[in-house]
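Hello forum,

I keep getting stuck at the same step: I have a sequence, I want structure tokens, and every attempt I make locally crashes halfway through. Rather than fight my setup again tonight, could one of you with a working pipeline run this one for me? It's a single chain of 278 residues.
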Amino acid sequence: MLQYVIMNGILLVNHFLNGEKFNELHSHLVKSAKKQNINLVIKTNLELANDEVNTDFVLLWDKDINLARRIEKGGVPVFNSSSSVAVCDDKARTYIELSGIVPQPKTLVAPKTYFDVDMSEFVDNAIACLGLPLVFKECFGSFGEQVYLCKTREDVMSHITAKPFIMQEFISDSTGSDTRIEIVGGKFVSAVKRNNPADFRSNVTNGGTMTPVVPDNEMIETALKACEVLGLTFGGVDILDNGMVCEVNSNAHIINIMNATGIDIAPIIFNEITEQLK
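Reply #2:
Ran it on my machine without issues. Output:
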């Protein structure tokens, strides 16, 4: 008689992010895990804030890095790791880690401040270096939020707060367009072309569309290298039309990609986790 080993895992999600798209994703991950003899239980970061975690692994579909690190210190493997999520969650750190390794738009990281200060000198130097328009990005944000196309100096100044930010050259040839490449376990899985004729950001949340695409070998190698450098077990790499890396996502919304390509990334992720835990 065949013996099936049941593995136990926790799907760690954010207690304060609710909505149909999040619930759909979480449910899909649980069902996919079950098909592979994994008992995946949904727990929120609030529920685990004061608890010790006893399970075979944690699938981190959140950015609560401190909690994830505490779980790792307790001996439980976390996918993606707290260190990888921390780097991907901070656009400045992502840029710095990938600098000189994969092509990226010319980028300037704002100096650290502890309160609102006069950034005029930095902004003037950035405009001289990057030109106008330029892309202003707060270091922390998802779904294309806190990302702005600034056409004037006044535009730039209007977005500056005490929050950390970067500024990048605007790649006009890739306006509203990029390619999302999904990597799992150091292998190319799927890709979509994202287009948004109404916005310079290609995000589906902002009205963009996805269509299946077969990227060229150079794009795939760039995505593979980015995930390798950032230590990602799985990740979505956004590549501009000129081949430059725009962003790297440690927990991309895989339902949209599945609907566009017909490729379900969830079982591939669980297969990789199972292999790493052997």
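The radius of gyration is 20 Å. If your local run keeps crashing, start a new thread with the error log.
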